[in-house]
Amino acid sequence: MSVRPLEDRVLVKPLEPEKKTASGIFLPETAKEKPMQGKIVAVGPGKMLDSGERVKPSVKVGDTVVFGKYAGTEVEIKNVKHLIVRETELLGLIEK
What distances in angstroms separate CA 50 from CA 25, 32, 44, 86, one per listed residue? Predict the structure, then answer.
């Protein structure tokens, strides 16, 4: 099964939260926050304007992005949790 996002939506696979702090303290499951970074797995064709013109997305497959804590809709694909998020809900692109 594969999912192809529509319009200006993107499919994001959230990155695993850190298991220990920078100082080396291991975090229990209950202390971990919901991930707010992820890797883009699929991108829709872009938003359709009223003029009938399509705006290309500014992100591409493989980009690492930051999104809001409660952004998007959670879906499970092949037993792996993903998010379907509108491109406008993405807060930033992580450049390496």
Answer: 53, 43, 18, 18
